[in-house]
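Why should sequence recovery work at all? Because a backbone constrains its sequence more than one might expect. Tight turns favour small or flexible residues, buried strands favour hydrophobic ones, and helices have their own preferences. The token representation captures these environments compactly. In the example below, the structure is given first.
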């Protein structure tokens, strides 16, 4: 009986991932919130010390400027006094601004609250009395000196308030805050350790549960896969309880095993049919070749023998021997069965054929054969070119009173070889590939079929008229196939 489907792995992983992520984020948010709160508080404390230091520096600078200003006024140095007055006003604005940053609420620290107010009052007093000093004229009176010295004392009081009393109170308050933050940091450190230790233990527990839940069916599937790889397809089907995804894999593996059994049976049948098809194709190829051998033009043989007999009668024996040997080689090449021959030998055969035809037609026939040496070892089916040459002579040049020329060109173009058979005869009429004349003893369609069978779909044959005046071009494009070693 088939087991019930469990919860999907994806759903379990999603629940685990989001739950763990939520817990981690919650812990991190709580910890960082407390940490940032302490950091912000410490930053405020540090900024308070920075403000106090800047205020003391400005106040000391303002005091020195005040002393220099009074000295310049007493000496009557108006230029120096004017510059120091402007500087005093600027320092006064900066000092008042920085003093505002020292103010705190009464609830935060009563002592710092009173000290900051005393500093503000002292600055207001100095601002009012410095205006009096700036307006004095020579000679300087005793009252002016008294005001000057009193202002210096106020500067000293303010410096003492800021550098000693206010600072002392700030440090005293910060000691309590620092102690509280240290204790809080220790608590946060302990909570962080416990939280992440709990998260790790929870993750390990979930991983163990997942492992126990998934390992058994996965191991069973792995064993079944090994059996299938070893060719053992008789194992029982997988039917174990597992999450829905793994159960789906079990069903797929069962279907795969059944499909493999069917495929092996079908493959054996197809292999047997393919072997039979290859045997039939081979026999068909041989039959076509034998058929092509049987189609050699008897009229050509009669004319060739007649020429040889007349040559023997009227000429010396050398010409007769040459023609006889050529004809013998021609007949030997056509009567022997070959699956494939070198392109060079095929061209030699065509050359023998043309030599015999040359003896027949005399000056009415000219021919030219060109082929790169590197292509002569290329393998082609036999009797590939001669049928086109024969048609060029019989149907193109023979009807012309003055005859003509047959040109055979072999060239390499990238990964293919092009063979052109051209004549300047009367020209082709119609398409021989579609409709072939009954008088043609060597069928072009037969050659075309053999080329397709040998080279496949990459071979291409095209026959076209050269011009309106006449001429025929046969263009055969075949892939650059294997070559025999010349060593």
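From this structural description, the recovered sequence reads:
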């Amino acid at each position: 009986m088939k087991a019930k489907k469990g919860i999907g792995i994806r759903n379990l992983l999603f629940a685990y991932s989001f739950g763990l992520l939520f817990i981690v984020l919650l812990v991190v948010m709580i910890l960082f919130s407390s940490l940032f709160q302490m950091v912000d508080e410490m930053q405020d404390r540090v900024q308070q010390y920075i403000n106090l230091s800047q205020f003391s520096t400005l106040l000391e600078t303002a005091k020195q400027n005040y002393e220099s200003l009074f000295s310049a006024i007493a000496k009557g140095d108006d230029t120096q006094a004017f510059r120091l007055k402007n500087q005093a006003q600027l320092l006064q604005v900066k000092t008042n601004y920085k003093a505002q940053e020292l103010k705190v609420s009464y609830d935060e620290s009563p002592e710092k609250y009173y000290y900051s107010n005393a500093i503000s009052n002292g600055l207001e007093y100095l601002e009012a009395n410095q205006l009096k000093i700036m307006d004095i004229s020579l000679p300087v009176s005793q009252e002016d000196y008294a005001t000057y010295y009193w202002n210096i004392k106020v500067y000293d009081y303010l410096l003492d308030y800021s550098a000693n009393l206010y600072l002392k109170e700030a440090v005293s308050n910060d000691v309590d805050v620092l102690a509280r933050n240290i204790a809080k940091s220790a608590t946060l450190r302990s909570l962080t350790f416990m939280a992440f230790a709990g998260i790790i233990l929870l993750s390990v527990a979930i991983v163990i549960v997942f492992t126990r839940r998934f390992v058994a069916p996965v191991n069973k599937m792995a064993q079944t896969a090994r059996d299938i790889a070893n060719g053992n397809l008789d194992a029982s089907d997988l039917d174990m309880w597992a999450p829905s995804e793994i159960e789906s894999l079990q069903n797929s593996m069962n279907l795969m095993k059944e499909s493999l059994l069917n495929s092996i049976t079908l493959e054996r049948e197809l292999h047997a049919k393919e072997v039979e098809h290859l045997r039939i194709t081979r026999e068909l190829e041989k039959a076509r070749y034998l058929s092509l051998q049987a189609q050699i033009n008897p009229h050509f043989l009669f004319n060739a023998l007649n020429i040889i007999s007349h040559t023997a009668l009227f000429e010396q024996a050398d010409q007769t021997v040459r023609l006889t040997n050529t004809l013998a080689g021609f007949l030997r090449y056509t009567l022997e069965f070959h699956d494939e021959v070198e392109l060079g030998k095929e061209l030699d055969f065509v050359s023998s054929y043309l030599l015999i035809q040359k003896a027949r037609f005399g000056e009415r026939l000219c021919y030219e054969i060109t082929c790169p040496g590197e292509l002569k070892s290329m393998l082609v089916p036999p009797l590939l070119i001669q049928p086109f040459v024969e048609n060029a002579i019989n149907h193109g040049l023979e009807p012309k009173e003055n005859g003509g020329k047959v040109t055979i060109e072999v060239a390499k173009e990238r990964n293919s070889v092009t063979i052109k058979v051209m004549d300047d005869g009367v020209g082709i009429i119609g398409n021989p590939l579609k409709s072939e004349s009954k008088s043609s003893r060597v069928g072009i369609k037969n050659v075309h079929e053999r080329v397709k069978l040998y080279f496949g779909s990459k071979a291409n044959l095209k026959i076209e008229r050269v011009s309106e005046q006449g001429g025929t071009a046969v263009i055969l494009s075949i892939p650059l196939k294997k070559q025999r070693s010349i060593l």
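A few observations help interpret the result. The chain has two domains: 9-214, 295-479.
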